[in-house]
């Protein structure tokens, strides 16, 4: 006696087909807006000469962190420029910035709501577990029918993949605010919004920034993977090197990814600490 298998894959495929057909107008509008944002930011960064953008980034690293990071950033970016990977680096940075912005805009309100509502917290935690344990490549599958091949699909997949840490850390930060401070705010007659914006969010800001840091790192890793569905940038350089069996080119692009990741990580960590280290 054989137990019939559950046609889960057919159900998921049918659901995706239904969503694609019913909401094609919405997805096309989102795709146009997102592509416009990508083009504008990318053109703005490419309009600056390489030395000019390098100087701006180095000055930002110095101001946010310290002179050591500024010097390291200058050397790393100069190496990327020397390797001829400046334009792919800009394309990768554009995708990471936009994907992180969208993820944070969605994650912060959801994290705040989950911190203030026990019912929502218990509902959303299993969903976040599912999102974080799902293999990254799976997110590329629904992105293609919704938005087609290209950078828009990459941003869609990146947002879904990188959003959970920002939600988790926001919820954690607000829930870890000492109870006595909340009681003191209540004693002074603070409203719910006043407690949130003047007590809970300021005290939880370091934890929230740690979540944003993790979101940026996950976005960078996903943007590289998304080269498989036509995303431009350093990931496409790695993918092209794999297809052509050119390990040297692949390692050059990989080193550029590492330099960009280290710069983003150190800058966001310095913002989280709120002081020069």
UniProtKB/TrEMBL annotation:
The chain crosses the membrane at residues 51-81, 93-116, 136-161, 203-230. Belongs to the binding-protein-dependent transport system permease family. It holds the Pfam family BPD_transp_1. It comes from Halomonas gemina. Keywords: Cell membrane, Membrane, Transmembrane, Transmembrane helix, Transport. SUPFAM superfamilies: MetI-like. Residues 89-268 form the ABC transmembrane type-1 domain. The keyword Cell membrane applies. It is a multi-pass membrane protein. It comes from the Bacteria. Its main location: membrane. This is Proline/glycine betaine ABC transporter permease. It is found in: Cell membrane. The keyword Protein biosynthesis does not apply. InterPro entries: MetI-like, MetI-like_sf.
